[in-house]
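Structure tokens please, single chain.
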Amino acid sequence: MSLLPYNSNPLTDIALPDAMPEAIIERLVADALAEDLGQSGDVTSAAVIPETAQATAVIRARETGILAGLDFALAAFRHGDVGLSVTPHKTDGDALAAGMDVLTIKGAARALLAAERVALNFLGHLSGIASQTGKLAALIAHTDAQICDTRKTTPGLRAAEKYAVRAGGGANHRFGLHDAILIKDNHIAVAGGVGAALSAAQAHAGDSLPIEIEVDTLDQLDEAMAAGAKIVLLDNMPPNMLAEAVRRIDGRAVSEASGQVSAETIAAIAESGVDYISIGRITHSAPCLDLGLDIDIEA
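Here you go.
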């Protein structure tokens, strides 16, 4: 199993596994293969490739990036015990350059081709997330700020996508509505204000759940701090306002910045002194990393 650089959630202090749980990998891969193969299987390979044909194939990177999702590819080629021999050359979190070998697969050509697209889909998507995370993390490496993700994930793939963020050098925010309280602007509007919402959350959860509150202005921040906020989400604040917010927090709470984060703005945001920068685009908009499979058919 692949090791990752972070094994705990820094905002919620929830322990995370060093690798994706095998049960989740197997379920996602099985669903993806079932979707691709349908009731009839790979009709193209059945039509043009002899049943006895053997093959050796190599998955290679075609561009620079960071690898994630290797265990998904391994599971795809091993699914159903089809007798394929799979040899990884890299591990998740490794830097890739164009032309680097990632995985070698040997065995029945039909079985290999049946799993090819599913393996590459997981590798490309998750490596794309890791690569995007790594690029942004490199831009703020001179600061103490750390990138984290959000709940803006592909339905059904949240665990895998958050895993890829960690492989790229980022951290995970809450996994869902169940593991932390995050009071956002709509909650505040219904509850009757920052102080009222925070007090209600504190009374409800006590110390059983982390409580974070979103603020849009410095006045809201002052109200949150007066109410005992321990984690504050500073939403859509320009760098100069973020710096003032950090000054007012003065180490009494963890600070997270969000909104309008891009490669062009992230350094200034990090230099404001915030602890974390949450970025939805690293999961919902990261381009796939280009990896390809080259195959040689043997008699």
